[in-house]
Amino acid sequence: MVRMTPPKPSLEMLRTLTDENVLRSLMAHPRLTRAEISARTGISKPTISDSVQRLAGAGLVVDTGERTTGRGRAGSYYSLSPLLGAALVAAITPHGVVAEAVDALGHVHGRVRTALEANAGSQVAAEALVTAAGQLAGRIPGRLRLAVVSAADPVDRGTGRLVHLPDAPFLVGDLDPATVLATTVSGPVLVDNDVNWAARAEHQAGCAKGVDDFVYLHLGQGLGCAVVSDGVVRRGHRGLVGEIAHLCTAGPDGLAMAFTEVFAVLGLRRPSSTAIDVPVLQELLARHDEQAERVRAVLVRAIGGVLSAAVSLADPRMVVIGGEWGPYPGLITAIDEHFSRTPRPVPLTAAVLSSPELTGARSRAVEELRSLIVRTARPAPEA
Amino acid sequence: MVRMTPPKPSLEMLRTLTDENVLRSLMAHPRLTRAEISARTGISKPTISDSVQRLAGAGLVVDTGERTTGRGRAGSYYSLSPLLGAALVAAITPHGVVAEAVDALGHVHGRVRTALEANAGSQVAAEALVTAAGQLAGRIPGRLRLAVVSAADPVDRGTGRLVHLPDAPFLVGDLDPATVLATTVSGPVLVDNDVNWAARAEHQAGCAKGVDDFVYLHLGQGLGCAVVSDGVVRRGHRGLVGEIAHLCTAGPDGLAMAFTEVFAVLGLRRPSSTAIDVPVLQELLARHDEQAERVRAVLVRAIGGVLSAAVSLADPRMVVIGGEWGPYPGLITAIDEHFSRTPRPVPLTAAVLSSPELTGARSRAVEELRSLIVRTARPAPEA
DNA sequence: ACCTTTAGGCAAGAGCCCTTACTAGAATGG
DNA sequence: CCATTCTAGTAAGGGCTCTTGCCTAAAGGT
Which residue does chain A place closest to B314, by CA atoms? Predict the structure, then answer.
């Protein structure tokens, strides 16, 4: 359903729109003269001058003091006020926390890495997150106005909390980023799982660039996937799109079973855990004896079953495979070969980005920060 | 990615927006005085008067000649011009063609039904469609400005043509509604399959009203489903979302096989066809002997496998079951019971609407016609 | 007959954007 | 050194839209 009620027209709306044009121009280009903004937006010079004056008065935009050089009169460069603040981008995995601050221009202002011991627990992760956020907050001129968090666990869409699904590993553990960051970050905290952010990154700058419908299959310690439909990562009602542990597929002897169950039967799960034993699996994928071939064939068919579901329910233009062991060279070609014999084959590609979850979260953070700035025509109070 | 470049502000834009407010008001209410429009939109009376005068001059709006009665000065009623035309809504199944004309108010102006003999072929269906469209075009004051077509086959999203997938029945047959209707309909022809339209209908007015994430499972002669995500029916890259014939699920003896294969093994397909034999299946669902129970158990488990895929990849808030034999009372409760023992159960409901595909297509037609009218009201963007 | 109520019109005013024309200032070229 | 040329920015005026406030017209109630 499209918007039923168009917005009420008013002169204030026009002014706001002009200001938005100016701000967006300065977000795309670090410094511009009023004449350049005018040329870029197609809005007349006097109108731009008015808007810049308004925005400068409100503290959103500052005269940098720099001047143009070259023929003609020197122009004054304007840019976004540094006090507009930044967004926190954080990725939490069982191995550690990575956090950075990013401003409305998309520039990264600092990066903090905290390693975590295995099984350190969500409490420790939460502390590492807060510490990192605090350090970053001290390094930037403004304050942290929002946060975008990637977590290596399913995320409840409504609450932003990490959720534990049956028979799926709970890698990070019970954690509520919004609560944890409430004191350090003044605005909204957006949380999603790493696979979804990775898919976003591959969509914007990776192997799925420009592909508006694709599926990203993550094969690592956990099993997950992301569904990008009409250019957007779809999350579903609770945010659990792509939690494929229980997807019905083919196991050994052609028996139907849950995807995660296949790994259990093959002995590829870590002891007393529902997580995949990645080292064992990688070692197995490297071998070429008969037993390894047999296991690999089972895996390929199981993954094929998952892809048949993805093709049926998402109709992707391509399938991207990522994760710790998914893009293993021999595996992809084997899946591809199996897949090409199915009734609806789809091109298969390995993910190409490193730390895609951070890239994806960062792009969302920049987007969100920009729209926050445009929405609130108000300067961030000094830190 | 949200819009990067906001629209350029101008007074013309305000005027256009005012006109759109007026038109949308008159689309929601058949006749209104200028004062009523003003009250409804919150825009001042003089502005509305200007706009109505403009639109009346352009022929989009007409003074009906009627006047208000009651206290106070009598006001003139205005309404949309009947010459604005209508949209064609058509549903094509192997059994026949149903077509109607609908105007911008959502009123149905005529309905034509043409029965088709079994296996009549797509040629005959195309002729029936053209004939029906021609009849309807003669019954309305304006002309047919667009068409929305429902077809009981998968539809290619890019071309609007019906496509034949391996191992799925090709019920209507090779048909290109856009070409067929080119002479009768002056504008765009939107085509989608009946399951997607049915899901749209259930979303807007049926059992999934207000539910922005759900899955509609169609169990009839063909097997299909629709995925509604974030309030919109998702179609995927080629428009083949929901073509679940090859989805890997559990068959007899717990063997993994394609969904449609289960029916083949159970002997529930029509002879030398990939279509489900609905009468046989219905008869079987009504029986209660041991063999029927056994077959039913297999079906329930197979459908359960499909639903596990839907839950994993779409995370619906609910599952709606429609189709000729899907909403069979005993079947739904059996699926529900089986489903409730899975790790991620989701509420199950039977579809409630009759001819949902027509309802869904009609609502899209009205929406599209309205937006077409609003678009043509604004000055044509120069080439 | 008079009052109340409502639709609609008119006039004044403010705001926003645009065009045109002008001024200011910096590099270039003789 | 001065004139030229080119560009940034400003000023003035105009057109357009929306709003407020007041007025008239017309119908119903008292």
Answer: A241
